[in-house]
Specification:
alpha/beta, 4-stranded antiparallel β-sheet, single chain, binds pyridoxal-5'-phosphate, Aspartate Aminotransferase, domain 1, globular, 7-stranded mixed β-sheet, Aspartate Aminotransferase, domain 2
Amino acid sequence: MSAPHEHGGNIFAIARSLGLPPEAILDFSASINPLGMAPGVASALAASLPNLLHYPDKGAVELKERIASYHGLAPEEVAVGNGSTELIHLLPRLVAGAGKRALIVAPAFAEYAAALERAGWEIEYFHLTKEDGFALDAARLKERLALGYDLLFLCNPANPTGILTPAETIWDVIRLCRASGTFLALDEAFMDFCEEASAKELVRGVPNVLLLRSMTKFFAIPGLRLGYALGAAETIASLAALQDPWSVNTAAQVAGVASLADEDYRTRTRKLVAGERAFLAGELARYPQLRVYPGAANYLLAEILSGGTAKDLRGYLMPRGILIRDCANFEGLDGRFFRVAVRLREENLKLLEGIGTFLSKRY
Ligand SMILES: Cc1ncc(COP(=O)(O)O)c(C=O)c1O
């Protein structure tokens, strides 16, 4: 098994170990928009260089206004962070007054557990199963919440399964959390790929919910570190009070504003990703050795039913310059599961060729 909190996208270390430049690697392990950054971002960053002589705008006023208007919310309902990871790590402190017992809907992003462990919380998992297609059953969750938890982590669409929980079920979860006195951290890191399913309208003014969003994935700026939270103004103010000063630097603020200015890029991204996701899913499903789960974001989870493990497949593809995510270290999954990002057609074809050769054992 790999290290417990390993992530995808470890491209610099892997390129070094293979003796290759990072550009020579096709990274399907981190799920980043295959179109790259929005067209105006690089020039906005270049133009902002002289401003690096000053401290960043501490209130990130322009960025918060942009995010608020993108979502039809007020700036007071937005907090920005050094990646949504910063905000995830603040959550145990935000909720700390209440207690120290959390429930994580699994399989899930490993930083939830990392943040809770670091803060000394007790962690339990609510497992979604492959037999149910990793779908969330609100009635089963209700029974579990009755055991008493201070904080619930839920990701929608989920990572790594890609499964989208419908808005009606999210609404049930919000009500259940209110009834059981549980704070809900609803992670929508990949929701820009299917924005119409966001719970942003549902959580307006609800004090015990935070919606977490990331600009890393859809807007392809993982190296700048930019994420944000949406929630009731009082909750947002309490969260912001816990942050280190200047946690969102000038370049990240500028890139965030420029990214959100380009509606055409968002439309192109959604269209491209939906088309390539359907293509990739269809092609992978042709292999009887694989089961592919119907993801709603820019990645797909697959299970190897026979013919090797995800570790074997990863090991086969890596020296060929192709990285995939072995999902063995996700709570609730095992060594048969792997995740691949949806990329451009010719890149997806290279991945498919590699997987096909591996499964046919023709190498
Ligand atoms: C589900 C999920 N939430 C949050 C994050 C953190 O994203 P950020 O880069 O904004 O810290 C990730 C990153 O992989 C993720 O997969």
